Amino acid sequence: MRRTLIVANRTASTPVLLQEVERRAGERPTAFTLLVPDPTPENWSLDDAVATLRTAAAGIHGTRAAQVDGLVGGSTDAFESIRAAVAGGGYDDIVISTLPSRTSVWLRRDLPSRVEALGLPITVITPPTSHGFSLFSKGPGSHESGR
Q1: By the 8 A CB rule, do 72 and 108 touch?
Q2: Beta strands in 84-141 (DSSP E)
Q3: What is the C-alpha to C-alpha distance for residues 97 and 8, in angstroms, rounded to an integer?
Q4: Does residue 27 sit in helix, strand or coil?
Q5: 107, 101 contact by CB (below 8 A)
Q6: Widest pairwise Cα distance in the chain
């Protein structure tokens, strides 16, 4: 079974991420772990985000077995939380779901490039901007590295 680490805060239930989870789960059996580096927003919970991702992984008819769990980061630095998770998790790849480039602290701090140095393939997903374009060119809202 493939193991995918999903890194997200406020974007954990955006349609573009849910579609990516559904697509991956449909391609092959995949266990997802949602890592939330900073779970402080009061109107949001890790349990809610995991439940939403579990529903997406189960597919449109809800019939696919969906293995999704959650993990809260141990550092205020998203990269350090990811590094620690990768060191102990046996993941095959990483999905980083972040805000659009104009508001994303993670993109301003070049988190995707830093995470690529960990040696796993990564996919970066950003919600489409109001104009329908994303920072990355693989399609609206996503970019993949090919490690």
Answers
A1: no
A2: 93-97, 122-125
A3: 5
A4: helix
A5: yes
A6: 39
- CATH code for position 129: 3.40.50.620
- What number of helices (H) and strands (E) belong to the chain? 5, 6
Phi, psi (rounded to 5 degrees) for 134:
-120, 165
Domain that holds residue 89: 2-144
DSSP of 65-128? --EEEEEE-SSSSHHHHHHHHHHHH--SEEEEE---TTT-HHHHTTHHHHHHTTSS-EEEE---
Query: For residue range 81-114, what is the model confidence (pLDDT) as tens digits?
Result: 999 999 988 999 999 999 988 889 999 999 999 9
Provide the whole-model pTM.
Answer: 0.83
